[in-house]
Write a structure and sequence with these properties.
By secondary structure, this protein is an alpha+beta fold. 62% of the residues lie in helices and 10% in strands. The protein has two domains: 3-197, no CATH class; 201-273, Alpha-Beta Plaits (2-Layer Sandwich). It has helices at 3-34, 43-55, 60-78, 81-100, 110-129, 138-149, 153-167, 174-197, 211-222, 252-262, and strands at 201-207, 227-232, 239-248, 267-273.
Length: 287
Amino acid sequence: MSHTIYSRLRTIVWNLLLITAGSALIAVGLKAIVIPHKMITGGVSGVGLLVYYWTGMLSPGAWYFLINLPIFILGWLGASRRFFFYSLYGMMVLSAAIDLVRFQIPINDPFLAMLAGGTIMGTGSGIILHSLGSTGGLDIIAIILHQRLSIRMGSFYFAFNLLVFAASLSILSIDLLLYSLAMSFVSSRMLNAVTTVSNQRKLVFIVSDKAGAIGKAINRHLKRGATLLEGVGSYTGKKRRLVMTVVHNIQLKRLEETVFSLDPDAFVIMEDTYNVLGKGFSKRKIY
């Protein structure tokens, strides 16, 4: 097996594992916590739960699958084939997992249930976002609208979920609706935490008279690229070179030691950055 084929196969397996694990967590949150407490979620899963609560027919997983079918027809026309098939797999796994989960987590307090449900589902969603696919639903519609009409994905999510929660007023009490809204907030915060925990990097600017030597040391000791920028001091008018680099958080201490061992008077600026695309970091997701 050639290296290229092995690399592609490993990538496919890794993405399928991420989608499977994330879908399993979302299914546990929905079936073991959200549904027993009669709460509602946003997105297509929320629509499926509403229909399930209204009709009492079929199952939450079956409704999620049926509602997604016309969405995937649109997805075939508006998304990349890779994203489509990964998302199709995710939708099928999540639909099956929802129906396969047959236990409940014994949480009686709705406030604690809201925290637990939001945390579990947000973690699952964050894991899936590390893959090259999704579980279907709003993701596909949002991507198509963004590509065709330049509608912001966040704005679309907000507007759609606003309609879902408004519709749930017909079957949910105000208390349950507020708990559901709070659960969505917890889920979104957890999603952000999971997606950034492994993506967070440090953008570093180094002002030094030994910029060239520092850049080469970063290449050699940290195995990271560095860019030399030309700058002018606003007070002195003196031309100076700056080093710009991006490193993993765990490399910060080594970077400090490398810089200040060469120039104790160096001026170092560090900023958090969450989306670094390129060699050695994240790859661009093609939708």
